[in-house]
Each structure stands twice: as C-alpha cells, then as structure tokens.
Amino acid sequence: MMSAYAVIYIISLLAMAFAAGALIAAKLLRPRVEYARKLSTYECGIPAVGTTEVNLNIRFYLFALLFVIFDVETLFLYPWAVTARELGPIAIAEMGVFLAILFLGLAYAWAKGALVWE
User: Fold this and answer.
1) In this structure, is residue 20 part of a structural domain?
2) Number of domains composing the chain
C-alpha cells in the first residue's frame, strides 16, 4: 500500500512529464520558416523610429500591486468567513490583526499618495 505522499509524488511527476512532453512536441512539430520580416522587431505595422524604450510612471506599478494585495485579502477572507463560527474567538482576533495590518498598509499608501490617479 502506498503512503499518502507517494500519490502526490506520482501525480507531480506525471504533471512535469506532461509539461516537458508538450514543450518538446511543440519544439519538434512547429514550422521552421524564418525570414527577415518575421525576425524583425515588429511583424506588422509601422517600423519603430528612434528608441523603443518607454519610461512608465512608477505609480502604475504601485496601483497594480495594491490591487493584487487587496484582491488576495478577499481570497483569505472568504474561507475564513465560512468557518468563523467553528474556529471560535481566537480566529476572530487573528482576523482582526490581519485586517488591522492591511488597513495600516492602506493608510500608509494613501498618505504617500499612491492612490492618487493623475
């Protein structure tokens, strides 16, 4: 009889073998037609003039990072809310600490102006 972890190892190995097999099959079966226009920076459209580097404002990244953080917070809140009665008052206190830390992060970001969209 296999242990509980042996099944996990077997499934993990099968998943890695499937991923590697798919990559190898794609490499071997893909068409190999290369020509100058295909190898250019842009396959279609107007050719690039000048530098193609664009400096983006860091606020875009901060705004996206804050969105991801508070989106993950929602993912943690839902399972907790489903089992909150069974977990008892300690779980409520722990969630209060978790939300307080997130609120302090939001207050800090708000004070620094990370949420101001100009």
Assistant:
1) yes
2) 1
Task: Give tens-digit pLDDT for 15-67.
Answer: 999 999 999 999 999 888 877 767 776 656 666 677 767 777 777 787 788 88
Structure tokens at 94: 């722990």
The pTM for the full model equals 0.47
Look up residue 8 and give its amino acid. Answer: I
Give the integer Cα–Cα distance in Å for 94 and 87. 11
Return the closest-CA partner of residue 84 out of 72, 98, 71: 98
Asked whether 72 and 79 are in contact (CB, 8 A), the reply is no
Quick one: which H or E segment has residue 65?
A: helix 58-82
> Domain span at residue 56?
4-112
Q: Please tell me the predicted confidence (pLDDT) of residue 10.
A: 94
Decide if 42 is inside a domain.
yes
